[in-house]
Amino acid sequence: MTVFLPTERLDVLTKGNLSTLSRKVHGRHSLIVVMYLAAFLQEHVLIVGPPGTGKSYLARMFFSQFPGRTFHIVCSERMSEEYLVGPLDMKLFRDEGEYRHKTEGTIVDAEYAFLDEFLDLPDTTARCLLEILNERTFTKGKQKENCPLRSCVAATNFSAESEELQAVQDRFIFRVDLEGLQSQEDIHSALEKTVLNRDDKKLTSLSLSALSKIRQDIESVILDSFSLEVYSLLVSILKPLDTSITDRRVISCVRVAKAFAFLSGRDIAQIDDFIGAITLCLVRKPSSEISREIGAALTEVKKDFRCRVYHWLVESLSNDCRGKKNGITRMRLRTEATHLRDMIDKDFGASNSTDGARAVLVFDSSYKILEECREKLELVVRELLK
Fold first, then answer.
1. Which contiguous run of DSSP H or E holds residue 274?
2. How far is CA 274 from CA 141, 242, 334, 343, in A?
3. Same domain, residue pair 179 and 232
4. Which residues of the chain have pLDDT under 70?
5. DSSP 26
6. Same domain, 48 and 134
7. What is the chain's alpha carbon radius of gyration, rounded to the nearest angstrom?
8. For residue range 76-128, what is the model confidence (pLDDT) as tens digits?
9. 37 and 146, same domain (yes or no)
10. 270 with 296, same domain?
11. CA dihedral 146, 149, 153, 155 (to 10 degrees)
12. 66 C-beta neighbours (distance < 10 Å), count
């Protein structure tokens, strides 16, 4: 899995910890980026991969940079919910007949959690996590507690099959499929950094206030109506092709798009931010069918956007020329608008593609060229109407 996201700003926000972790755990840069996104958004990550791929090692190191307590447990098929939420208070039960779990030191009062071999949990045990992961509360009869949980990372060697485990798995907005290192270059680099231990740099502690500030900045990113319209179109295409896309994931994906925009240095989320979020959070089963459908949809979106920009050009000219008696000025403006329109048509004609991957790559550049055209027209109009 590759995350197409500029990481320079992320490295600054994490005080260089992104680079340090990427050096210490070779070949896991994209996974580390996803884990930071989850930490900033207070979401959860599910890592699926074979044994020995560094899942546990990375999770323990990652959470060590954050303030607060981390709950870590290796799950098993015979584990009861008491291992996760604490044993019953037998004294309270004997004295007052009240069932109450002693939650101190459990996932209920932890800021961060790492659940290893997560999907080995029995269905009945996994059920107790639904409320904790989603609502951040724990309820058992009369007992109700608020959970300070910020982010949970779970690791497993396989995907869930039972409906109960799939429901819990849906609480993990981010899912990353890992493979062992394959290339000779990656294997050699990993050997150098582990066997020879050449990198002993420690992670810098990140304060709670810094994390809160990052989250507030992400939430302040603006969503424009056109990008949301395109996003809803793409989701409507994807849903029939992948039944794992739930309404919860669709809504959460919007916040991920905001994070993409923020980390790319933008105050307004653009369509390419939504495409990045979709690739990361919604498309779990990439296929040629999904690629074709998304590619065709983006082609239609681009045509629609071209029409909108052309109408914007015409409307701008009409407004700026209204009341003007200078026919030469009006003609020069219309000539300039036609030239800009031809630039747009040429760009879209060259980048037309029904291939999903190709469409995603060219869409970002097309979008930016259109914005540049709009800015250029504004300058021309102001200059000619002085």
1. helix 271-281
2. 41, 18, 34, 25
3. no
4. 1-4, 160-164, 182, 184-186, 188, 190-200, 284-291, 294-295, 298-386
5. T
6. yes
7. 26
8. 999 999 999 999 999 888 888 888 999 999 999 999 999 999 989 998 898 89
9. yes
10. no
11. -30
12. 19
Burial class (CB in 10 A: 0-12, 13-18, 19+), 171: buried
Using CA of residue 124, residue 108, residue 47, residue 1, what is the dihedral sign?
positive
Helix axes 225-238, 247-263, angle to 10 degrees: 140
Are 133 and 168 a contacting pair, CB within 8 Å? yes
**DSSP E strands: which ranges in the chain?**
45-48, 70-74, 112-116, 137-140, 143-146, 151-156, 174-177, 222-223, 268-269
Q: Are residues 151 and 23 in the same domain?
A: yes
| Sign of the four-CA dihedral 269, 42, 52, 204 | positive
Residue 3 covered by a domain: no
Handedness of CA 51, 54, 56, 59 (dihedral sign): negative
- Whether 178 and 49 map to the same domain: the answer is yes
Give the residue numbers spanning the domain of 41: 8-194
Q: 């009062």: which residue's tokens?
A: 109
Statement to judge: residues 29 and 123 lie in one domain? yes
